[in-house]
């Protein structure tokens, strides 16, 4: 659901609390609100000036709801006004749909298809950006390079499908070990890169050790058999040169 306006319903919770607006979206049809009889419809809605007429128009694309546009006027809406609103809503729905599609495409292009974490291409771009930002802002930047120990043995013993499940398992454990704002990247087959903006050498070592212990203490279980896993890692920090 996309809700945004300089006025109108500016808080998402107010929209969902307004049963009249939710009903308009579900019924896929516009609704002119009678200010005298339907005062409850205006809960959570604000306007610039005293309004005579208010209309709520759903924004749909391929019958999928994207939001609701709420318009007010200091006199009654005419048939011509309503036709213009229909045209405006159609154009807005296409623009919003294109924006959503672009965002999904960007996300798809930046994610590893197996694990769902960031891929090497996106990670390399972000690392360059964070390094440039660190140089300008003079704040620390650290990275951790991680490799799953003896991962070839897992593939040889259990097959590549189990190996893929192990990679997903490891990526999930690593992701729960980093801080908000850190980036986890699948760098190679069984290699992972963690980018830690603002983290000094000491903080990075703490995070790396947390990762190591979590992996060691969380075996991957398949068919009641536990596959015990360990990782090896290397740490580098800027501006510190030795970790």
Task: Provide an overview of this structure.
This protein is of the alpha+beta class and 243 residues long. The chain is 43% helix and 23% strand. The chain has 7 helices and 10 strands. The protein has helices at residues 12-17, 19-27, 79-110, 120-137, 151-158, 160-175, 201-216; strands at residues 31-33, 53-61, 64-73, 118-119, 141-148, 183-186, 191-197, 220-222, 225-227, 231-238. The strands form 3 sheets. The protein has a 5-stranded mixed beta sheet with strand order 4-6-7-5-10, sandwiched between helices. Strands 1-2-3 form a 3-stranded antiparallel beta sheet, with helices on both faces. Helix 5 crosses helix 6. Residues 1-7 have low confidence and may be disordered.
Task: Summarize this structure briefly.
This protein has 243 residues and is of the alpha+beta class.
Q: What is the CA-atom radius of gyration, in angstroms?
A: 26 Å
* Percent range of helical residues: 40-55%
Structural class by sheet pairing and helices: alpha+beta
Let me know the average pLDDT. 81
Which strand order does the major sheet show?
A: 4-6-7-5-10
Q: In total, how many beta strands?
A: 10
| Beta-strand percentage range | 15-25%
- Number of discrete helical segments: 7
**So what's the overall shape?**
elongated
Unreliable sequence segments: 1-7
What profile does the largest beta sheet have? Answer: 5 strands, mixed
> H/E order of the elements?
HHEEEHEHEHHEEHEEE
Alpha-carbon distance between the two ends: 46 Å
């Amino acid at each position: 659901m996309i809700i945004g306006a300089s006025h109108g319903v500016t808080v998402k919770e107010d929209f969902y609390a307004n049963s009249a607006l939710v009903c308009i979206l579900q019924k896929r049809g516009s609704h002119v609100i009678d200010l005298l009889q339907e005062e409850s419809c205006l809960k959570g809605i604000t306007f610039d000036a005293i309004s005579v007429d208010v209309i709520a128009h759903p924004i749909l694309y391929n019958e999928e709801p994207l939001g609701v546009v709420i318009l007010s006027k200091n006199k009654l809406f005419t048939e011509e006004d309503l036709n213009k609103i229909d045209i405006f809503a159609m154009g807005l729905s296409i623009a919003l749909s294109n924006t959503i599609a672009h965002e999904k495409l960007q996300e798809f292009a930046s994610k590893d298809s197996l694990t769902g974490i960031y891929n090497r291409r996106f990670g390399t771009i972000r690392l360059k950006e964070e390094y440039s930002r660190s140089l300008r802002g003079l704040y620390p930047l650290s990275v951790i390079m991680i490799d799953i120990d003896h991962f070839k043995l897992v593939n040889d013993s259990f097959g590549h499908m189990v190996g893929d499940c192990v990679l997903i398992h490891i990526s999930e454990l690593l992701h729960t070990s980093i801080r908000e704002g850190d980036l986890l990247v699948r760098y190679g087959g069984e290699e992972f890169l963690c980018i830690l903006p603002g983290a000094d050498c000491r903080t990075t070592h703490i995070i790396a050790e947390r990762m190591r212990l979590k992996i060691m203490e969380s075996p991957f279980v398949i068919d009641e058999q536990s596959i015990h896993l360990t990782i090896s890692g290397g740490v580098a920090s800027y501006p510190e040169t030795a970790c």
